[in-house]
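Ligand: pyridoxal-5'-phosphate. Inputs:
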Amino acid sequence: MKINENYRSLRDSYLFSDIAHKVAAFSESHPDRRIYKMGIGDVTLPLAPAVVAAMEEAVREQGERATFRGYGPEQGYPFLRESIREYYRSFGAAVDADEIFVSDGAKSDLGNILDLFDPDNTVLIPDPVYPVYVDTNKMAGRKIIYCAATRENAFLPMPDTSVKADIIYICSPDNPTGAAYSIERLRAWVDYARERGAVILYDAAYESFVSEKGLARSVYEVEGAKECAIEFCSFSKTAGFTGTRCGYTVVPFALKRCGMSLHAMWLRRQTTKFNGVAYAVQRGAAAALSEEGLRQIRANLSVYRNNAKIICDALDTLGIWYTGGRNSPYVWLQCPGFTNSFAFFDYLLEKTGVVGTPGGGFGRNGEGYFRLTSFADETTVRGAMAAFSAAFG
Ligand SMILES: *Cc1c(COP(=O)(O)O)cnc(C)c1O
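Predicted complex:
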């Protein structure tokens, strides 16, 4: 037998476990010091009451013979796909309920979608970026090229027509930089993809954080995107589902390559390799998109938004350059006085007790930058930024 040799080319992902070790060692040697955890990209507020009530009700239904449900539709229950379609309509993107595929989260779909594409394709990935795009393609042995996200382009790289890419990743608002494309800027990517016959894999996991007008919530706000883009989204960051698991992927009917419908291929793939998301979870997800649910999840989002503003205000006062924060739970700052983000991590922890994520962990161009998240409680964020300001003011 032979193993998949491509796994040898994967970099060990020590980033988060390394950070956890350093933080644990620090708190052990400094038991009296306060630690401000602003590093992990995970939500902290609980599920909305409307979501909990819907899930409880669904579990009771599953416990009664008359209302019990076995296997559901692989693509997701129509009640949830309808809610998602309506949600898209609320910000001006038209998708058909049958173009929506419900899943256990965006990360799985981002990996699984690659089943549809030949390993011979060239993949274009921004640098720095969410590490999943790089690793899933390395596992398949695909050729990866990078487009540089830098301070000069505000961490929003634009297409270069001399670059020949077949699969293009875009994450907006971005993890880790928090930068978000306007509909206008996104149009250039859609035009590039259509011209080349490439496919855009658009990660909209943070769309609900967009608050400025003119910025894209969905790639389908751009005309022609349905002919070239697949969109991945999730209830994880929007509704606190990171531990509950529910996401969705939109594969438009109009997306065709080499005489094949990618929608038909994805349906075939899912019905073969996937058996759907738990009924109670889908009921919870639909409740998150109900009028009451939306009100409740927006109240949670505004807590994170307010935290991001506290971070940004402190950086503004210190005159430290950053992006993100306004339309994202992430603030991406230039390390003050450091060119090495890992050295800055150590210094910041030692000096202030603030834990963030070194930008170098997200790619070469992330070096010199640092990610702070607003997924914390306000007291932690205020304490962190007071300590930060005292150290760099
Ligand atoms: C958190 C996150 C997701 C969501 O992943 P789930 O599997 O749905 O929890 C997707 N993309 C990015 C960039 C993320 O940061």
